[in-house]
# Entry
Amino acid sequence: MAQEVPPVLPLAPVERIIRKAGAERVSEGAGMELARVLEDYGIDVSREAMTLAKHAHRTTVKDEDIRLAVARLKKG
# Structure
């Protein structure tokens, strides 16, 4: 059986996000799953932002690339 790769994001801040949303208690599994979801979404946003930066003939991803990438991903 293959081992699961732990998320890159630290669990404590991810669990704080869940508590900030109103949860009183958070299981370790819930924190790990949200961390995986956030990482997957972050990779998608980053890839879209890189595409936008390349289109603008830049190698640096800027904050506006991230904002536009999020907006584009929400549409599609």
Q: What stands out?
A: The mean pLDDT is 94. Helices lie at 11-20, 28-55, 63-75. The two ends are 35 Å apart (CA to CA).
